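Hi D.,

Good news: the full-assembly prediction came through. Inputs first.
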Amino acid sequence: MKRVQFEHSTIPYMFVAPQILIIAVFFLWPAGQAVYQSFLLEDAFGLSSRFVWFKNYTDTIWSPSWLQAAWFTMIFSTLVTFLSLGLALLLAVKANQVIHAARTYKTTLMWAYAIAPPVAGLMGNLMFHPLIGDLYKFLNAIGWNFDHKLDSFDAGFVVVLISVWKQTSVNFIFFLSGLQGIPKSVIEAATLDCRNATRRFWSITFPLLAPTTFFLMVTNITYAFFETFGIIDTTTRGAPGGATTTLVFKVFQDGFRGADLGGSSAQSVVLMIIVLTLTVIQFRFIERKVHY
Amino acid sequence: MKIKNLVMAGVFSTASLMTSAAWSATDIQWWHAMGGRLGEVVNEIAEKYNASQTTYNLVPTYKGGYEDTMTAGIAAFRAKKQPNILQVFDAGAATIINAKGATVPVAELMEKYAGGFDIKDYISGVRYFYADSSGKMIGMPFNSSTPLLYWNKDAFAKAGVAGPPKTWEEFEAMAPKLAAAGYKALAQSHSPWIFSENFHSRHNLQMATGNNGYDSTDVKILYNNPHMKMHWTKVKEWLDKGWYGFYGRAWGDNQDAFVQKKVAMWLGSSGSFGGLTKSADFKFGASFLPYWKSVIAEPKGTFIGGAALFAMSGKPEEENKGVADFLKFLTSPDMQYFWHKQTGYVPITNAAYDKAKADGYYKTTPDAEVGIQQLNQPGGEWTKGYRLGYYVQIREVMYKNYENIFSGKSTVDEAFKAMETESNALLERFHATYK
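Then the structure:
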């Protein structure tokens, strides 16, 4: 009997090949290297190396510094994600209602999108500078005994504020286009049914925005975990007392500053697992509630 | 097409004609961490060297800060593309020296190719910092500085205080007067370097077991000692009384506080002298790092900070000869004096120091000599330096705990206990990796 088989062409494979190659070269290969390196104790110059199973993991991950960084990262990314999403949503809803000078509002709010995190950090650093910073002086003038060089809460405030500010405009753009994608007819029908604007928002608009919100949540968590590195490196550098050290900043400190390859590889593998787990959780449990 | 090729060929042949002199010279790659004005001086040194001979062509490349430069050197070494000369800073010394075979000891190199080497030619404070436990110099001290006290003469006059404190006891007596005149009495820019490492050297205290780490990698840190705890209890007291200003970890922020006349005294580096001369619009002086009379009657010298030049291994003999030749040139009295005058770093050889004295340099700028005088103060058992692994991370641990002392999050005892535990864990890791 002749088997029915469709003609296979190699062309589709050729089309995806560049993408696969890029993933392999820039993601899979380095990730594999990190996993391999995380089982070795190797001197920085690669002259001697020893396979040590999980020593790098147990050494670095049970250290008080790592645990402190992990704890801060959790709080930090939760705050940054929810604050920047919440603020952006509020601004998008308000900007969407504006009729006069709508363009100006929108452009002004999108402005910060073009700023790279390290630049945002440098600007923040100047504003919070103990000798010349205007925000530093202002906060002290209104009675907050503000000292982010020593107070861990104040330092956390600085990095959260800058990170949220930087990310809000990105979220704003997405929320605004999400809002504009909601059919007018739905909104008008809802307006006839219910006079309470707040209720209308939560029962009609917000669910319809869910796909956007979900997408932004995933990207914002990744932002808080990784991209905020540039902000922390240019502001607090993890100080005071390690209170604003995120996990990725610690990987950098130990690997790139301290030349501990095994330890920082182990940390980056753990970080990879954490982010992967978080993303899986989001897709399994939160995405179910999202209707496209 | 043809015409383009012809033109290209023409360009290439002209270019090769023009550079044929340079082509016959052997390139010597030098990766350094000297930015800004210091980088300009490095380039001037390279130009002077290249003009002085035709055999070698020295190519200096700025690679970023100290850590960036070391990381770049490490990555290059692993890819077998290492430069001939790599500048490595004090805290990274253990990493490069303990990686067996990463470098060729400069003492051997100069012995072999530069007509001999005598460690006694170098001033005592810099001699052994980058040497191995037998006293063989591995890295050539390059930019060497030492912590000094800078004091604002106008502020002192305003407060009615005669001069800078020799001891911390004297400091405590004058601080209230400076506070009354509207100044924070003191700030400093590098607590691990000034208030920890050099604290031990100045008071001749042991920093770590195994001869401060020179004899072995299997060592424990000794920072958790009563003298350090006493000092930091005092510093915290000063902070609470408003005698001590903490403007963050960054070097420049604390220096700025001094320049902006917020603090009357600032502990910085002997290398800061040149910069202060330009930025401070008041009269200031440089003085020795104070000590506790209650700990030591006659203080010892301090040791150097800064960085050294290492000759990377795995290079052809011809290039190694060039490295030796350049180091000989660099350590000549003329070049050292030039470097000293241009940057404020100390001259590393006795001959260069004598030359600066003979030239009358210190008659006109006496403050430029204070650093060398301090380095030349009598040494003790524990004043030659330290060699501790993962010291970059240990400094991070120190910063962290000092901040916790300042903020009141930890008591002094708790902070030093935590520092000891975390540092020893790092040293244990280093030992397991490099043994």
